[in-house]
Design brief:
The protein is of the alpha/beta class. The protein has 3 domains: about 80 residues, 2-Layer Sandwich (Gyrase A, domain 2), CATH 3.30.1360; about 200 residues, 3-Layer(aba) Sandwich (Rossmann fold), CATH 3.40.50; about 180 residues, Orthogonal Bundle (Isoleucyl-tRNA Synthetase, Domain 1). It has a 4-stranded parallel sheet, sandwiched between helices. Strand 9, helix 14 and strand 10 form a beta-alpha-beta unit. About 40% of the residues are buried. The structure holds arginine.
Amino acid sequence: MINFKEEIAALLNETIDGLSAGEIMDMIEIPTDSKMGDYAFPCFKLAKLLRKAPPMIAQGIAEKLQGSELFDKVENVNAYVNMFLSRKVFMKELLSGVIEMNDSFGSSDIGRNRKVIVEFSSPNIAKPFHIGHIRSTVIGNSIYKIYDFLGYDTVRINHLGDYGTQFGKMIVSFRRWGNEEDVNREPIKTLLSYYVKFHEEAEKDPTLEEEARNVFTRLENKEPEEVRLWQWFRDESLKEFNRVYEMLGIKFDSYAGESFYSDKMENVINMLKEADLLKESDGANIVDLEEYGMSPALITKKDGSSLYITRDIAAAVYRKEHYDFYKNLYIVASQQNLHFQQWIKIIELLGYDWSKDCVHIPFGLVSLEEGTMSTRHGRVVFLEDVLNRAVNQTKDIILEKNVNTDSLDITAKQVGIGAVIFQELSNNRIKDYVFSWDKVLNFEGETGPYVQYTHARAASVLRNGEESTNHALAAFDQANMGYITGDSAYELSKLIYRFPEIVAEAGEKYEPSIVTRHIVNIAQGFNKFYHDEHILVQNEDEKMAKLLLVYATKQTIQNGLKLLGMEAPERM
Ligand code: ARG
């Protein structure tokens, strides 16, 4: 597809001496008010170079550009050249581009041969997969999809929290108060109750903590009985997590979690020693980071057991060796900012220049209208329950609104779960937000159901004009773009045109909400077009041209929804 801005820069370059095409490119503006044209070129800076008054320069340029087929109109207003693209040329170029690329419209190959690791979700085993985990899971999945679409070679890693002293606690608690049947029947809820019980009892009897530490050391030493219990808890947890991943349509390439690094820690400790970074403090080993304005990083405890941060250092070193990544991305809550700053600094101090390629992508908190959660006290809202509730409520809405669907169950799932994902990806990720049922399932606001519904509406128009749609697609060259040059058609098409740029920007900023907001704009633009114009008109040429625009809109919304990890229902 033509890059219109580049094309304009080239034209301007022919008329102006003394500036490079690149410099001109940087000077071209996109006016916020479309009455000032699609592109504008300010001439103030040229006064010195050309020894002329800026309005005169603008006038000269405007006159020269007027003859170009690229424009419907070129005006000079004060010192600006305002350019109005030829709507026909623009439409033809855009629609042929979208139709040619279809599913891949918006994609690119800028990431070719570059490996990007996207680490996300990473829940802790034997603990509930609760609503707080939705953020990393859904934001991470979308970032993965965006990078994949941009042509990167992606690896999805679930860095499971499957190691650490809490497993000592779990095992102690299980041995004292638990039994196998309960765990088999309802694994996570039961294990959670053990965890809660442990903390209650440990308040009365502090020696339990000591006992738990010893059990974890036995696990680290690979004692068969501890390993068996740990493995069992892990398997049962993964079964539950996978149910949620399946509902969300999320997959991973690797589940190498914290335990995977248990035998790779010694190497880290040796490297730190060799680099003279390790200091003894009270029997424990630390890396002093005072110089960098951070508290010390605790690498091994008094009893020699390793810590979360040690495993992250080991994981990064392993990933570099194993994957030779271009970028290693971590989608983890902003509460862990310090943790990431610390260990990435340590990687740098070890002399690895690739420390700059390890990127922590933080996000804010999600809270519930109903109040706060606390794992220790057993007050949790399970993500699975939230997703099920979203699906059930959507079913009610569909029945109540008498929405036409292929299958109530499938549509309710696509829309209900999509709604939760969409809300999650609507705001800048760093913002805290309150999970609100009213907002999630509103079909009219800037929500998932609204965008999906708009997609289904476009699909329905295409179905109703099926023969003409097929004909228009097959004979694209004969399409008469003159029928789709009205303002609402044109505003809509400009939004579609920007989609590839939007995807690239979302990738650069690790910000899926840029895509979310843009497809809301496209949906609104489409609904305005739908409202302003009759699409399935008598005149066949007019109908076909309009259907092409509907087709391109539908494809773009669909591609956008896919990048968020959502389905695009054909009917609803
Ligand atoms: N399991 C951790 C938690 O639930 C998140 C892990 C984040 N990833 C990492 N490489 N540290 O808090």
